[in-house]
């Protein structure tokens, strides 16, 4: 996750293999495994995700690959989310340090809940609760239909309307909120036309309480716009400074909460937006 | 996250509170916490995610909320990804069963790696590796630009081209691959016009080796299309059956791998696509 010198430079001490192995999609193993490894920025990891490991043969093939890494001196780490005990023991017998992300916690939970875990494979990243799943898929459609102010239809159904000048991060944030959280998110670009007025643009004014603004730094905005239209007025530092100042004024005047996207990831922005707009249980 | 009956209905035996508490976005706590709880389908959970818990005061306020749930008989579970030991001990002193998703594994990793975890907050869901982050954001843009066959520009840069008849799940799968994995994914709708020919549609024929097909069941397709255009030829079971049969023939004739989206989530489809197209390390 960290930018590192080339592998053969002498200051790099250790290259470690890290396997994320799952009997399902591998999303959980990858997410938690990466979160854990992020705490060791001084070490380089050669990462490999292997999803859908369901048979003894597949588990043995993973173990063989681990063996190769061990022989090559990359002392493998193995993060697993595998439910069947038989598969876990094949994997655990490999020459890796095994970090079992489920088994220990499942035992804690069985004790706390006074019941045993279901024998079925954990299906959290499967269709699972189909109603919730299809709500997420419909939210993606809604987001695409309402991207960049494209459609004013059914704007009253939006959970949030993200407003910002062009290239401040509206679209990825919108998609993340839709795809991960099933929220209906519209986004609307603020342009020069919107600024003579004191109020919000006509298309979104009715939904002021659902509006959330984004801003960024003029330099960052200018860089991003430059990628799209080099050396244009649109990407000039002067124009970017002006648009951002006007947008922030607009947010303040209309009491629209906003945040700066230049130092925040879509995951962080989404978490802040959900918290601010009270979109979580 | 789950649709629940009203809390006072008598058939609900146990309602347990489940907290996902994080010093960062809460993505890791939510992902793993939910994966664990999915193993106990017989129990209803009242879930609450609390991100950005950074101060003693905030931790105490979470503890107070947990106390309320405990008093109300909802015997809380508390999943935490919190790095500061001071905050962890405030939370752990609450009346919850604490499932610490990081601390134990970090100790295992410190031992295996022979070094201590960085004192900084884990930033996996922050900007982190900015190069990888911006690649993901550009992939989202690319996906939107190339959604539904909209643009043939830069199709040669696609990592995958998803092809399928309308409403088989191309768009959400495309967005997931872009947003989570930073892959450049174009998608192209197969229409009646594409079927007289033996080969792939002209726009994508050059990229046959990067094509991946989707199919579904006629009944499911008809239901989904019905939501968009009720009682039309487009949504008729006859038309859906015909289009899917022709699409599957097209995939087979052109040796395009494909899968059925009716029983798979976007996470599962994405994992299969990455594995089939060798888009993982």
From TrEMBL, chains A, B:
<keyword id="KW-0418">Kinase</keyword>
<keyword id="KW-0808">Transferase</keyword>
<dbReference type="Pfam" id="PF03618">
    <property type="entry name" value="Kinase-PPPase"/>
</dbReference>
<feature type="binding site">
    <location>
        <begin position="164"/>
        <end position="171"/>
    </location>
    <ligand>
        <name>ADP</name>
    </ligand>
</feature>
<protein>
    <recommendedName>
        <fullName>Putative phosphoenolpyruvate synthase regulatory protein</fullName>
        <ecNumber>2.7.11.33</ecNumber>
        <ecNumber>2.7.4.28</ecNumber>
    </recommendedName>
</protein>
<dbReference type="InterPro" id="IPR026530">
    <property type="entry name" value="PSRP"/>
</dbReference>
<keyword id="KW-0723">Serine/threonine-protein kinase</keyword>
<keyword id="KW-0547">Nucleotide-binding</keyword>
<comment type="similarity">
    <text>Belongs to the pyruvate, phosphate/water dikinase regulatory protein family. PSRP subfamily.</text>
</comment>
<dbReference type="InterPro" id="IPR005177">
    <property type="entry name" value="Kinase-pyrophosphorylase"/>
</dbReference>
<comment type="function">
    <text>Bifunctional serine/threonine kinase and phosphorylase involved in the regulation of the phosphoenolpyruvate synthase (PEPS) by catalyzing its phosphorylation/dephosphorylation.</text>
</comment>
């Amino acid at each position: 996750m960290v930018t590192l010198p080339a592998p053969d430079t002498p200051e790099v001490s250790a290259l470690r293999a890290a396997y994320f192995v799952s009997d399902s999609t591998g999303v959980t193993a990858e997410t938690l495994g990466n979160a854990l490894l992020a705490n060791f920025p001084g070490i380089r990891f050669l990462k490999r995700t292997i999803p859908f490991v369901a048979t003894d043969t597949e588990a043995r093939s993973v173990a063989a690959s681990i063996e190769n890494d061990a022989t090559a001196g990359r002392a493998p780490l193995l993060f697993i989310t595998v439910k069947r005990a038989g598969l876990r023991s094949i994997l655990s017998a490999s020459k890796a340090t095994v970090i079992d992300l489920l088994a220990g916690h499942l035992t804690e939970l069985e004790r706390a809940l006074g019941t045993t875990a279901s024998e079925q494979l954990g299906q959290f990243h499967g269709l699972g609760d189909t109603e919730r799943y299809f709500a997420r898929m419909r939210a993606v459609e809604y987001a695409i239909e309402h991207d960049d102010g494209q459609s004013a239809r059914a704007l009253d159904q939006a959970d949030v309307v993200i407003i910002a000048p062009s290239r401040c991060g509206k679209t990825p944030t919108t998609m993340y909120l839709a795809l991960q959280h099933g929220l209906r998110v519209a986004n609307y670009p603020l342009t020069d036309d919107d600024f003579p007025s004191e109020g919000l643009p006509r298309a979104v004014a009715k939904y002021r309480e659902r509006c959330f603004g984004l801003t960024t730094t003029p330099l960052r905005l200018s860089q991003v716009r430059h990628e799209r239209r080099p050396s244009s007025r649109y990407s000039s530092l002067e124009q970017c400074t002006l648009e951002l100042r006007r947008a922030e004024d607009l947010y303040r005047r209309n009491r629209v909460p906003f945040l700066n996207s230049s130092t925040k990831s879509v995951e962080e922005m989404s978490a802040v937006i959900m918290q601010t707009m009270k979109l979580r249980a």
